[in-house]
Amino acid sequence: MTQRTVENAAMQLSNRARERLAAKLISSLDEEDPAEIDRLWVEEAERRYRRYRITGIAKPAKQAIAEARAALHK
To answer: Which of 15, 19, 21, 47 has the smallest CB count inside 10 Å?
Structure first.
């Protein structure tokens, strides 16, 4: 079965069924333990806050979002 075949079949499902399928597919990508993900986010937030406290400089939200999007597309 090809990806295109699966996509075409999925698009024939109801909105609710596609929503459940999407959620199941996305959750299958989550290999990290939720507690570990939380710990990593806290660590990142603390790192960013320390950098802000030291430099007094914060990135504008638009810049931070643009950089994050660019990193995702690499």
So the answer is: 15
